[in-house]
Amino acid sequence: MTETFQTINPATGEVLATLPIAGKAEVDAAVAKAAAAQKEWAKRTGTERGRILRRAADLLRERNDELAALETRDTGKPIQETLVVDVVSGADCLEFFAGIAPTIAGEHLDLGPAAFGYTRREPLGVCAGIGAWNYPIQIACWKSAPALACGNAIIFKPSELTPLTAIEVEKIYREAGLPDGLFQVLHGFGETGALLTEHPGIAKISLTGSVPTGKRIMAGAAATLKNVTLELGGKSPLIIFADADIENAVSGAHLANFYSAGEVCSNGTRVFVERSILPQFLASLKARTERIKLGDPIDPATQMGSLISEGHLNKVMGYIETGKAEGAEVLTGGHRVTDGVPAAGFYVAPTVFTGCTDDMTVVREEIFGPVMTVLPFDSEDEVIARANDTEFGLAAGIFTQDLTRAHRVIAALDAGSCWINTFNICPVEMPFGGFKQSGLGFENSREAIHHFTRLKSVYVAM
Ligand code: NAD
Q1: Which pTM value belongs to this model?
Q2: Quick one: 76 and 222 in the same domain?
Q3: Residue-by-residue DSSP string for 257-288
Q4: Residues 400 and 448 occupy one common structural domain
Q5: Aldehyde dehydrogenase domain: from which residue to which, for each copy (predicted)?
Q6: Predicted confidence (pLDDT) per residue in 136-150, tens digit
Q7: Domain assignment present for 361
Q8: Which of 168, 231, 366, 443 does the annotation list as catalytic?
């Protein structure tokens, strides 16, 4: 009998669906079906592939509100976010790669009078995408659109905590005319992900997840020397210089910490503030943080919803208690919220720690919840060294009016995705990815083409 699991609405405890767990037989069957479909898909022109992706993008946009509501129920994220970000960014990605598809090409190389060379950008074959639970529909689109544009098939395993919107993406691709087998959703936990990772018929794994899972996948992929793209965790710095517009910087700190209840990989959770503006910054930060409205995320007035699960709530609360025990001071928050929210949900007050030092656990480890640490600094060189003192390198942000300084500091930071005077804005035209232990490779932009194709070099004697 097929094993199953349930997915719940973490904001209310409501059971949303029961789904089958894919085991070895299901993975083998999906890979065989994908491989057969991919052979035909690879023969289509980029224009034909692009046309289907564009149709799917249109269908995503038509169904935006319904998909946003489903995403909110599966993740606990506020509907005011999912309506304007999650589905939109997925549709943008499909549309972007629809346009890119006909332009995927190799190069001609002139090799003197008696020879020339050329390169071919070929699809990899069957790819697998494995998703995290924080941006489920966006992740399904960010992985599938470039894979399909390049002529691959892709099997997608959403997080076991948020499996529902990927199912809708599969239906939309089919309705848009994508041949059967090219985008398949398989459900399950880490074991299903490991089966995909080790499968000899899969050419590539693209993971969005935690650093430990990334390491396991890289090790598992080694047996078949699979190509991997890893989008992993972070503990990113957000640096606020004294000349910054303080209210804009507070807005940036909010964007970098409390959007999606802090469950965002690129969050700037180490907020370095130049000492001379610290009192003014903290006064505004505290007042504005205490105005954030928590509640049932399906309510359009709610600004912060539930964390993803009870286990994650316990992890985040554990970090908050460790922060207090290690001597950090709670400026605001620091507790679970049970008043004014559905009783079965997992709500944590947006929390700001001050009086932090660089060696504290809450400053060093990824918490993945609404927990900000504030760290004063005195000079540019000092803050660069401290910002880089981490094994992560996903993102970084800087607020200053001095643009010469902004570019100088950004150039010195070990981070793959950076912002100046804003945070966490990720348009599909720009590459997104991390350095150091935050990952390997990039998603989005033309750069993604390199991660979903292989290059063939051809020498021609004349
Ligand atoms: P996770 O690593 O626990 O799980 C991610 C996915 O990997 C899930 O689908 C899970 O089932 C699967 N998985 C688990 N063990 C596996 C194994 N051994 N082999 C194959 N697959 C396996 O991460 P999560 O808790 O779902 O997500 C939170 C993490 O994701 C955070 O660390 C966050 O920073 C990171 N994240 C990164 C990005 C990015 O783009 N860099 C975006 C979102 C989230």
Answers
A1: 0.98
A2: yes
A3: TTGGGG--TT---EEEEEGGGHHHHHHHHHHH
A4: no
A5: 3-458
A6: 999 999 999 999 999
A7: yes
A8: 231
